[in-house]
Amino acid sequence: CSHMVMLPDGRLMVNGGRNHVKTTSIFDFSTNSWSQDFAMNHGRWYPTSVALPDGKVFTASGSGQPNAANTAEVWIDGTGWFELDDVDWTPIAQENSFESHWWPHVFVDPRGDLFHAGPTEDMH
Fold this sequence. Notes:
Elements: E1 3-6, E2 12-15, E3 24-28, E4 33-36, E5 48-51, E6 57-60, E7 72-76, E8 80-83, H1 90-93, E9 105-108, E10 114-118
Antiparallel strand pairs: 1-2, 2-3, 3-4, 5-6, 6-7, 7-8, 9-10
């Protein structure tokens, strides 16, 4: 129930999961070991995470408390997570489908911008 992304240096990041955890874990292939990283601001169950071209990680939605489905945050290596106050993610959680806030379809476009392609009717 978590999401994972490959970081530019080859490490694997896994964040969120069952029971709306705030946990972020990183697997380092060079040491064959897992470590816990900075916790997210919101516990998230079925979030979407996207590795960005600059090495940051964007995470949004998923169910959780408080209001995780309506929020987005960014992870910076060595610094941790910060919430994006200027991103209005509310429409994704207000659709009629219970699952509309689970694993939203978010991709990096060729310019480095994020494209939200669903699963709701609204795209951003």
